Automatic annotation (TrEMBL):
UniProt keyword annotations, A-Z: Cytoplasm, Golgi apparatus, Membrane, Signal-anchor, Transmembrane, Transmembrane helix
Topology in the lipid bilayer: Single-pass type II membrane protein
Listed GO CC annotations: Golgi membrane
Compartment annotation: Cytoplasm; Golgi apparatus membrane
UniProt name for this protein: Uncharacterized protein
Membrane-traversing stretches: 74-92
Length: 360
């Protein structure tokens, strides 16, 4: 039963091939190019057949399905070539010094636009708090990962440069290669009452229970808990009151920006990272480490109160770098590269409100 059916199919295929050959000859006689002829044949095969022959319809359907799978295989091959090419370039960049420098130099003018697009595309992911995964072990080890040794960029720096701008202006990036303290750069001071008012005004955004804070008291678990008119009197009764909030969402970081705007001395082409930190400390509160899990170059703003900031070399640079400190007052802005372990000493009298951000 199957042999006559196969013979019929083969006969119809031969007939189709013959007719296609005749069509090609006819197209050439009319002066059509090979591309135009192929287009006409493809359009003919895409037309719905009106013939009553089930075998002919089956053959046409098989031809159309074959064309579809050819296109799918072509897309897959292009995608595979792209992945292999990118992987090869990344490997060469990481393991070949000359090629890596050439690629860095070529991409340098486009670094800011590329990472800006990446950050904007990642905005939907900011709804999820993944901070608990930052320091966890990898499930699968990366064979190409290696710990980079510190280059000891702190070498030769023995103190923080203290200055005061006569007028607001942008400064070049090379100006921030050493720690520098700008006296009174932030004009609007930020007492603790302003923080409470901000939480009250933006409570719809900040009441989210997932916006957790690192607090010394159990009655403040998230940033929305600062919406309390009696909070100041409560914190004065605590011996070691401090609250640290690390904002990693675009909406909450923009809210913090109303109190601590971007320092005017940064050029506009420098991007401020989304992660921003708010620190509130009561009288005699313990010190904290500012540079833990930080990757960008940083700026610290003293909104209210005074704090002493200590710069300590990391272990790999202890032999070639020095330790030093500087005292910040309300309105001061301290900028420094992430090349030291930077710590706030215990707070003195009064309430301290400060902020830290970073630049890419």
């Amino acid at each position: 039963m199957s042999k006559p059916k196969v013979k019929d199919d083969e006969q119809i295929l031969r007939q189709v091939r013959y007719e296609v050959t005749e069509l090609r000859k006819l197209g050439e006689d009319w002066g059509m190019s090979s591309g135009q002829i192929n287009q006409c044949i493809n359009e003919a095969f895409c037309q719905k057949l009106t013939s009553g022959s089930k075998i002919t319809e089956k053959i046409a359907k098989n031809i159309q399905e074959g064309t579809k799978w050819i296109k799918i295989r072509l897309v897959f091959r292009i995608w595979l070539v792209f992945i292999i090419t990118v992987f090869g370039l990344v490997t060469l960049t990481n393991h070949t010094e000359y090629f890596g420098k050439a690629v860095d130099k070529m991409l340098q003018p486009y670094g800011y636009p590329i990472f800006r697009v990446v950050r904007l595309l990642s905005l939907p992911l900011h709804h999820y708090n993944i901070s608990s995964y930052h320091n966890r072990e990898c499930v699968v080890p990366n064979p190409y990962f290696y710990d980079q040794e510190d280059e000891c960029l702190c070498q030769g720096i023995t103190k923080v440069r203290v200055t005061k701008l006569r007028k607001e202006k942008e400064l070049g990036k090379e100006f921030f290669e050493i720690p520098i303290l700008f006296k009174g750069l932030q004009k609007e001071l930020v007492p603790f009452e302003k923080v409470i008012k901000l939480v009250q005004d933006e409570y719809e955004i900040l009441k989210d229970p997932s916006l957790l804070v690192d607090s010394s008291v159990d009655w403040i678990k998230n940033i929305g808990d600062l919406n309390d008119i009696e909070l100041k009197s409560k914190m004065n009764k605590e011996e070691n009151f401090h609250v640290e909030w690390n904002s990693r969402r675009m909406s909450t970081s923009q809210t913090l920006r109303t109190l601590f705007p971007r320092p005017v001395i940064y050029p506009k082409k420098i991007e401020v990272v989304i992660t921003r930190s708010l620190y509130v400390a009561g009288p005699h509160a313990d010190g904290i480490l500012l540079t833990e899990n930080q990757a960008a170059d940083l700026f610290y703003i003293q909104g209210w109160g005074t704090r002493t900031v200590v710069f300590t070399p990391r272990k790999t640079c202890e032999d070639v770098c020095d330790s030093f400190s500087v005292k910040t007052e309300p309105g001061d802005v301290l900028m420094f590269a992430n090349s030291w372990d930077v710590k706030l000493l215990p707070n003195e009298e009064g309430i301290s409100v400060s902020f830290m951000g970073g630049v890419a």
